[in-house]
Structures are given as structure tokens and as C-alpha cells.
Write a structure and sequence with these properties.
It is built from seven helices and five strands, in the order αααααβββββαα. It is of the alpha+beta class.
């Protein structure tokens, strides 16, 4: 899982405009604020995390991803429990990414291809990362909804970030008898602990 977050993080660090399509342009534009914050040493750790969290909340299909990750537990939960879970899940995602970004190192990448899946209405943006051991291909899945774009998944070496998250959360849900309200308690505690580490 950390490997997938590192890929996401590397992308944030090295935004190079190479594709001239709308989805790719959007992706670059949305990460510029985070790049600027990490270059500005006067920005506090709290403000940097807030920027990452805002980016996740605004640019990832958080409700759809969190619902998929919850699996069958989603359907038996109350409306309020679902609302709280989506909020906690998006913060969980932001905290994971922020944790990886604390120990970053620069690597080069190039956007090599962008294609549109007409059937699923999804843009597939391929990114090649260059490092000392060779090249790695990463695919961003971006979907347009109501005149704006959202990241719906990240695929690395045929491994989906969303599917991996579902497996992780499925293990957590088994420990609380598939009760989403009890998972919220665990997730809230984890988030509070991670936030304290990241912002101190």
C-alpha cells in the first residue's frame, strides 16, 4: 500500500506539462498548489496538510471510492453513519499521502499517453516514472462529472489503489463484525493519531 502512495506522492513533486488534453491539464493545475506549498518553507505543517486534505476532498471521487471500499457494510449503515464514514475515509487518505510526503525525494517522470474510454466515460492518463532501477508505468483514471474532473483510481503495475484499499478495509471490518459505525470509531482514533504525528 505504501508503494502506491509513494507513486501518488512522486507525481505531486514533479508536475511536468507534456500532454495537451483537458484531463491532463486539469491534473497538473490541481497539484500546483501543493507543489508551491512544499517549496515555501514558511508554510506550516498544519497548513500543508490542510492543502493536501482540500485537494483530496475536491479532486478525488471520495464518496464513490469510500462506498466501494466499505463493501456490503455500506448498505446496512444509517445515513449519518455513512456521512461520517465518508468524511473519515477522505481524511484517512489525506493523512496517508501527507505521511509519505514528509520524507520525499525527487524523481523524474513523463506523461506518455492519454486515452479516453468511451464505454466507461473515463480518461486513462499514463505516467512513466524514471529512477535508478528503471522505469515504472502508472495509470491515472480520471472521470468528468458535472463539468469537472475527479480522480477515481490509480493503477500501478496492474494494482489498483482502490481495490487495495478495499482489501485493507475489509480486514478492518471483519474485526468489528462488518459494522460501519464501529469502524468509524477505529478510523477516527487512527486519524487523530496520524494527524498528531504529521502536524507536530
Amino acid at each position: 500500500m505504501n508503494f502506491l502512495y509513494k507513486i501518488f506522492f512522486i507525481f505531486l513533486l514533479n508536475a511536468t506539462p507534456l500532454l495537451a488534453d483537458e484531463a491532463s491539464d486539469w491534473l497538473k493545475k490541481e497539484i500546483d498548489n501543493i507543489l508551491d506549498a512544499y517549496k515555501d518553507t514558511s508554510v506550516s505543517k498544519v497548513d500543508r496538510f490542510n492543502l493536501i486534505e482540500d485537494s483530496i476532498n475536491n479532486n478525488f471521487a471520495g464518496a464513490g471510492i469510500s462506498k466501494f471500499v466499505a463493501g456490503k457494510s455500506w448498505f446496512s449503515a444509517s445515513k449519518e453513519t455513512k456521512k461520517e464514514y465518508v468524511k473519515l475515509f477522505k481524511r484517512h487518505l489525506a493523512l496517508n499521502i501527507a505521511s509519505i510526503m514528509q520524507g520525499y525525494s525527487y524523481q523524474e517522470y513523463v506523461l506518455i499517453n492519454s486515452k479516453y474510454d468511451e464505454k466507461n466515460k473515463v480518461s486513462m492518463i499514463d505516467m512513466e516514472i524514471h529512477n535508478d532501477t528503471g522505469n515504472l508505468l502508472v495509470t491515472w483514471r480520471v472521470k468528468k462529472s458535472k463539468d469537472r474532473y475527479f480522480v477515481i483510481d490509480l493503477i500501478v503495475a496492474d494494482i489498483s489503489l482502490v481495490v487495495t484499499k478495499r482489501s485493507e478495509f475489509n480486514s478492518m471490518l471483519k474485526k468489528v463484525d462488518q459494522k460501519l459505525n464501529e469502524l468509524n470509531v477505529v478510523l477516527r482514533s487512527q486519524n487523530e493519531s496520524s494527524y498528531s504525528i504529521i502536524t507536530n
